[in-house]
Amino acid sequence: MAAIRSVFVTFRPTRIRVVARTGVCGILLCMQVTLAHIGSRAGAKDSYDALVSGYLKRCAGMMRCSAEAFRSEAALLEWLGKQHGRTVAAVLMLDAHGRQMTSESLAEWLGKRRDDGLQHVVFAVGPADGWSEKALTEGKRRGGLLSLGPMTLAHQLARLVVAEQVYRACTILTGHPYHTGH
Fold first, then answer.
1. Residue 131's pLDDT is what?
2. Contact 145, 93 (CB under 8 A)
3. What integer best gives the mean pLDDT of the chain?
4. CATH of the domain at 143
5. Are residues 79 and 93 in the same domain?
6. How far apart are CA 94 and CA 159, in angstroms?
7. CA distances (Å), 106 to each of 42, 47, 127, in order?
8. How far apart are CA 167 and CA 179, in angstroms?
9. How far apart, in whole angstroms, are the C-alpha atoms of residue 170 and residue 151?
10. pLDDT at position 64 over 80
11. Based on C-alpha coordinates, what's the Rg of the chain?
12. Which of 125, 110, 122 is CA-nearest to residue 160?
């Protein structure tokens, strides 16, 4: 591959296009990340909403991020079924029996999905009594289960941790100094 001599960057509302003189073209911001949770609707704010929103807004320059609230697991599964695009949305459901990842491995996982052309990744925080077998099966089929560790966390706190980790993954993928590796 030829060396890149210069880079032109153009900004558009939903993506940044980077074109190198070698003719190589990459599109950043091509993937949507949604943090979904079962619980109160968006109108019923809790004390964590502003913090979660803050991290998702920080991602705006690197990745499109949003949050969705659902009253029930069935509503979330129905919404997932309606997410159409060129690719099927990948879903990582938070579950105590899921795979544990470091920040770096989560960034690598997201980067690989982005590079493979995946359009949408959903991180889903389940109901207080845990996911049903139907939801777990759907989660395993569409992406997998993710564990934040062996400790039990309040669901609002789990949402905040995931939002921060998504932001951290964005900074790792873009070389931003936010993540120092510890």
1. 95
2. yes
3. 82
4. 3.40.1280.10
5. yes
6. 10
7. 27, 26, 23
8. 10
9. 25
10. yes
11. 17
12. 125
The whole-model pTM stands at 0.80
For 159, the token pair is 């949402």
Answer yes or no: is 182 within a domain.
Answer: no
* Per-residue pLDDT reduced to its tens digit, 88-141: 899 999 999 999 999 999 999 999 999 999 999 999 999 988 999 999 999 999
> Does 117 share its domain with 43?
yes
> Is 93 domain-assigned?
yes
- Identify whether residues 148 and 71 lie together within a single domain: yes
Q: Answer for the pair 143, 36: CB distance below 8 angstroms, yes or no.
A: no
Which domain range does residue 37 map to?
31-174
The confidence score (pLDDT) of residue 176 equals 83
Query: Based on the number of CB atoms within 10 Å of its own CB, is 18 exposed (0-12), middle (13-18) or buried (19 or more)?
Result: middle
Residue 177 has pLDDT above 70, yes or no: yes
What type of residue is 33? V
Q: Residue 42 contacts by C-beta under 8 Å, 6 or more apart in sequence? A: 67, 69
d(CA 169, CA 165): 6
